[in-house]
Design a protein that fits this description.
Keywords: Membrane, Transmembrane, Transmembrane helix. This protein is mainly alpha-helical. The protein has one domain. Helices cover about 65% and strands about 0% of the residues. The chain contains 7 helices and no strands. Helix 4 crosses helix 7 and helix 5 runs antiparallel to helix 7. The N and C termini lie far apart (about 50 Å).
């Protein structure tokens, strides 16, 4: 029996102050704040406006390249404000994951993503990396917005 197995005292209390029975603490790892998965999925869903515009024929609404640029800017601003103003615990990781999920879902929405990926796997990697970097840049800006709000 280890010290973590001892439970002297009332239920819900640990025999050693500051310790818990979480797998991270049992392995000696620091506890991390949980990710907000509903928010991450919602952020990825917001970005799906881009392929949706293409599917329904609205990509030429303001002409090219204006429509794709406006969509990119609008989604980026929405991501930065939603994460930066709500005090999300891990803004960079949150938006990197949103970018990754967006990339994966948009490839499926756009058609048969794997026929081209098998022929050109570099293209698949390029799409994934582009959207991950997009999420990372937005995450850094959201984190900066959080710091400015805390300081002010």
């Amino acid at each position: 029996m280890t010290i973590l197995d001892r439970r002297d005292g009332p239920p819900g209390r640990h025999s050693v102050p500051g310790m818990s029975n979480s797998p991270a603490s049992q392995a000696g790892l620091p506890r991390t704040r949980a990710l907000n998965w509903p928010l991450i999925i919602g952020l990825a869903a917001i970005a799906l406006i881009r392929p949706l515009f293409g599917l329904v024929g609205l990509m030429d609404l303001f002409g090219r390249p204006a429509t794709p640029i406006l969509l990119f800017a609008g989604i980026s601003i929405a991501w930065i404000l939603l994460v930066g103003l709500t005090g999300v615990a891990r803004p960079v990781l949150t938006l990197v994951l949103a970018g990754l999920i967006y990339a994966l879902v948009s490839m499926v929405v756009a058609g048969d993503p794997f026929s081209g990926a098998v022929a050109a796997p570099v293209a698949l990697l390029g799409i994934l990396l582009t959207d991950i970097v997009w999420g990372a840049v937005c995450g850094v800006l959201a984190a900066a917005l959080q710091r400015v709000r805390r300081a002010g």
